[in-house]
Amino acid sequence: MVDGLIIRSSSIHAAGCYTTRAIKKGKRVCEYDGPRFTKDEADDRYQDRDITYLFSCGENGLVIDGFGTAMFINHSCDPNCESENVDGRVFVVAIRDIAAGEELTYEYNLYDSDDDEQNCYCGAKKCRGTMFSEAEVKRRARKARALAKAGR
């Protein structure tokens, strides 16, 4: 993993994770770690919170309740990292060379949320305006069309 990660103010969202050292493409930056429990347990635990640090970690429906440096990595529609799931462990990996001083970001690809919106404030030139995955955006559009059709 990479040494030299710091947390400081971010123009994307409150606090962000930055690197003080250059990172090469393909390098594992850090692990998204913390307690694991089911999505239903997470929904119960965080039903009254606007912000959570939950990360899906596999096909078995478990989520990681983020703890540590990785929980401060913000979403971007033009990220410099991506998440990699290896046997239920989630690593953040550089998808391009990253210069010292850059904020680390990855595409959250949110899905299966009870929230109506997950607005994105990443500021990328081609920002989609949402942290939902493209598949989730399409699923919601299909659902809205079906509801509109049924309402006629």
TrEMBL record:
Residues 116-132 form the Post-SET domain. One of its GO terms (molecular function) is methyltransferase activity. It is found in: Chromosome. GO terms for cellular component: chromosome. InterPro entries: Post-SET_dom, SET2_Histone-Lys_MeTrsfase, SET_dom, SET_dom_sf. The keyword Transport does not apply. Coiled coil: none annotated. The keyword Methyltransferase applies. Keywords: Chromosome, Methyltransferase, S-adenosyl-L-methionine, Transferase. Residues 3-109 form the SET domain. One of its GO terms (biological process) is methylation. It holds the Pfam family SET. PROSITE patterns: POST_SET, SET. This is SET domain-containing protein-lysine N-methyltransferase. It comes from Tunturiibacter gelidiferens.
